[in-house]
Amino acid sequence: MCELLGMSANTPTDICFSFAGLMRRGGGTGPHRDGWGIAFYDGRGCRAFHDPCPSVQSEIAHFIRGYSIKSRVVVCHIRKANRGRISLENTHPFTRELWGRNWTFAHNGQLRGIKRRPLDYYRPVGTTDSEHAFCWILDRLRARWHDAPTMPALAREIRALAADLAELGVFNMLLTEGRALFCHCGTKLAWITRRSPFGPATLVDEDLTVDFAQETTPHDVVTVVATHPLTANETWTVMDRNSFVAFRDGEPVG
Amino acid sequence: MCELLGMSANTPTDICFSFAGLMRRGGGTGPHRDGWGIAFYDGRGCRAFHDPCPSVQSEIAHFIRGYSIKSRVVVCHIRKANRGRISLENTHPFTRELWGRNWTFAHNGQLRGIKRRPLDYYRPVGTTDSEHAFCWILDRLRARWHDAPTMPALAREIRALAADLAELGVFNMLLTEGRALFCHCGTKLAWITRRSPFGPATLVDEDLTVDFAQETTPHDVVTVVATHPLTANETWTVMDRNSFVAFRDGEPVG
Q: Structure pTM?
């Protein structure tokens, strides 16, 4: 099962997420009873859709399936609840404003004792460990810089904060401010960079399908990050435990 | 044309917003080319849908039309852009977190010189006067109270802040933290409280239709706030210029 899915591209990329498997198996007793959410950026704006309900009943999943998304940065999360009751406010991804940008965060794992870390500025709306960790990261960034620093400095700091959090348990993370996609692998995360021409354009998981539009230019670069490789016939980079990578415009930065 | 629409109810109320008129006339040259947005609460969680595109092309408007919304607090805005380019980040309503709650804001009007007011904590993502005013309100609330005050104290403070902003121009506002709906009328705003049995359950504007579910209990109370009365055969309270009212569970508070 894929719990985290992210995308970074150098041009607004027309991808279509299909949750057919999720919808088919998302009943009251299945492993996917805990909802899912997706956020995608359009310039500085950010759209998020959250569905805490079993997907089989989900009007939103049906809508997203038919909705063509043009975006350069996407963060998607399929939840298996382990802390926090199942509710809209506990459904990833989470979003907050920092430095005049919308930040979005999704997490897979558990963090022991995270709630003992004090928060100055950002407060969780829900009760998950994950949202607390997100607020803690943004608190640290805000405390360190009054305005957005350079991208290399930002990536270094987020790498250090993620490594700190990973000491509390399992921490697989996708984080973005709408330009870069910051990825920490605590236990499992993989990525692939596809360049035009994309060739076979479908990524398949038991839960979802990602279709890339056929119309691409020779300059298109799209990186997909997921809990595990979504295709068997391509070479994914399976990240090491406790490693970090950031992408911007589909290319690694840092 | 209705620019602001809000709802406060004492029970999750099944309302169906229909944007048929908006979709029919929302072409590239019509008065509604500037998009619309809606936010509705589910407990502490908040869902928002924004559509900066002409509604006639809008997949989101079609989706919302068929989506049954159960909520106690709703804020909807239909935009006529006067400041800030048409884009996702400039589309109302705006949302920020304060005191562990999602706050949502929508505004009709213009505010001269608002951008000269300094902001400490909250920064606009887009370029509208409205988002700047929203950030200013939250800044003032945060500076005054570390944690949420009592509802009467909060309503008094928001009333004073709104009156202050209204001196800069036209300021018709809907603001909520998910429980109370704070309403400032600068020039035009009206409301009606409906109690079960609701009788004729349809509110019609040239742009939209609001249908209440037929199934209500004898205790249901629903207040609707709009730029102008949406029905001719009922007695709406047309607010005085520069007046304020707050609703919780459909009833006035303050």
A: 0.91
